[in-house]
Structure formats: C-alpha cells, structure tokens
Give the backbone structure.
Amino acid sequence: MITVAEAIQIIKEQTRRLSPERVEIEDALGRFLAEDIIADCDLPPFDRSQMDGYAVRAADIQEPPVRLRIVGESAAGAGWHNELLAGQAVRIMTGAPVPNGADTVQQVEFTRELDEGASVEIQHTADLGRSIVRRADEIRSGETVLRAGERINAAMMAVLASFGYAKVSVGQEPRVAVLATGSELVPVSQKPGQDQIRDSNNYSIGAYAALAGASVELMPLAGDDPGRLKPQITSAAERSDVVVTSGGVSMGVYDFTKTALNELGAEIFFERVSLRPGKPIVFARLPNGVLVFGLPGNPVSVSVTFNLFARTSLLAMQGALEPALEEEWAILERSVKGSDRESYLPGQIRTGEAGHLLAQPLKWGGSSDFVALARANVLIKVPAGVAMLEIGTTVRVVRLPS
Ligand code: AMP
Ligand code: MG
C-alpha cells in the first residue's frame, strides 16, 4: 500500500494546471495570482506628511518657542510647490506632499497660530525628518510586490488597487461535481425512513471544495445501482474538471464506484492509501481527462481524504505556490493511539499559557463521528507504526481549512 506522501506525489504529477484567466479586481479575492504583481510607481510617490501640522526646517526649531512665517498650505491632493526658506512654515495635512526645502513636520498639537494665521509659534523641537515618509520608502517602482501562486487576501486587494491592476491574471476556478453513493441516503429536506440517513457528505465536500477555490455543483444522489452510477459519473464529468464521489469504495457487496470507473475506461492511479481513517480512496482519470476522487463514505474519512488529496489537486490546478495544508507543531494534551498506518485524528488546538500550541484530540466514536468533527480545527498526525503517543509529546498537526 502506498503512503500518504506517495499518494500526494502521484496527485501532483497527474494534475494539470488550468489556463489562467483575467478577472476584474472586484472578483479577485480568494483567487490565486497567475502573474507577479509589480509596483508601477513609487510609494509614497512623494515625500509625504504623516501628521497635520507645519512643514518646517528642523534647524529653525531647535530652540523653542520660535515664531515662523506661514507662507502657504499643502493639502492632500493639492500641494504647495515652492521652495520653503529659513524662517518659514507651510501649514500641512496628513497625506500631503512636503514642500521642497522643508525637512520636518511638527504636529499641530505642539503649535499655535498667531497674527490671524500669518505666523505660527512652534512650541517644541522635533528631530530632523520627523513625521515625513520619504518617497519610495514603502516600495520602489519596478519592485515585485506579490508573487504568482499567492492567494489574494483582503489586504492584497489594496496592493492590486494601488498599482493599477484593474484586471488581474488568476488561476481558473476548477469546476467540481460532487456525487454521493449509498442506497441509505435521502436528501437533506427529507425525513429519513427505516434504515435511511440524510446525505451529509455532499455538503461538507461542497464546502471544502469551495474553500479550495472551486465552483461546486451537487449531483443528484446516485444510490448503489451501477446502472445509475455510470451515467451519473459521465454526466458529472461532462460539466466539471474534477468529480468527487463519496462512499462505495470499500470491499462491500454494494461498493460499485471502482467497478463503474473501470467500466467507463478510467485510469486508476491508486485505490488504497496507508492512512487512518480513509484507507480506501480512489484516484483516477476518466478518458475525457477529468480527475476523479472516490472518497470513502464515512464523514470523518471524507474530511481527511478530501483535504489531504482532492484539495491538493484543486490548488495545484489554480497554480498555488503551496498546495499542501499548513502544518505546525503542538503538544498533545491527551495520549492517542496510532496504528500501522499513518493516522490523521481530529483535534482542537489552542495556545497554552507558555505560548505553545496545545492539541486536544477529540473524543470521537470513529470515522463516522461527524458531530465531533464539527469542533475540530486540526488533524493530529500519528506516524505509521507508532502504537501510542503519550500526553506531552510534541506532534505535527495540519490545519483544517475554515
Ligand atoms: P461506504 O463507504 O459506502 O461503505 O459508507 C460508509 C459509511 O458512511 C456508511 O455508514 C454510510 O452510511 C456512510 N455514508 C456514506 N455516504 C454518506 C453520505 N453522503 N452522507 C452521510 N453518510 C454517508
Ligand atoms: Mg455505501
């Protein structure tokens, strides 16, 4: 059986990047940059005042109080473009250009206007350069500010705007079709009858896929009828880049997903991974090039296998710099059992008093316990072949997307 790392390697090799597209800046949030973002101007573009006050020469205000003659006003968007001389001051506002000849801004709180605004008394000294941000201090024209493959967050929107990216090139959103198998399933709007449960996987998979940047379509429930499953998979593959199924990949008599994929002529790259939970997991490609992730049915297995495998593929399709889940170190607050397979156990992390991350494994009833999973924010990794990790052990945890 292949390891998790080997499975991820295969997925990366088999995933093709979708061609980038140009979108309006308004639609760029959450997308992956397909181009480097270059500053097209210095920022600030001129020596800029950080305060409301008076632009002066530092040499003039070393022995306060001093009286300076007000020769003009520099406002944001309307500067004073003459040379400031010794003994002079210019009234200046936050964001306004500092006039030539001035080297310091004294804030208004340390001043008092006199002679009906003709002069100003500076009551405190200020160091040379005080309250001035020099031209290009923040960024110089031509510098690379953001890199292709970074995901655009809210703060980055300001960067795009500042450098004139009214349109920006981003990775195309993969289209994901989500398909649940299982004769026991009824739609969420329906009251389950005898031996039935509501479908929940379609909703968690759909949500995780959306968090991974995909557009999502939920297909009708497919039951456990191979005659229905095959056309459903075909129809899902006609309208998507990736099909994600759940259930029907184990060894049961009614587990038809692999059979259906085989009969459709899919190339199956793997069907089992040394992983707990989530050992039966199918990764395949249909003849039309659409990738298929056949996840197991158990809701916790779904979360683990989607986020380890399908998410990686979806991010790689968009050209993400870093398609893997974020990993960090944490200290175990309770001992956990391992197995011969690598385990990814739902847990909650929080910061302890000493500033370390603490990981609390969730009490859960096994891979079907999606109620416990609802409180998880990480998966705790237990290496293969480790029977038990004791309380206090430092472990690797991967963040579940949220
Ligand atoms: P399977 O992998 O098909 O054997 O399913 C394993 C377990 O997951 C069974 O208990 C199923 O009832 C359950 N299950 C399968 N699909 C879903 C679903 N879409 N929503 C909720 N539970 C499911
Ligand atoms: Mg089933």
Helices lie at 4-14, 154-162, 201-211, 226-238, 257-263, 299-317, 370-373. Residues 315 and 340 are 30 Å apart (CA to CA).
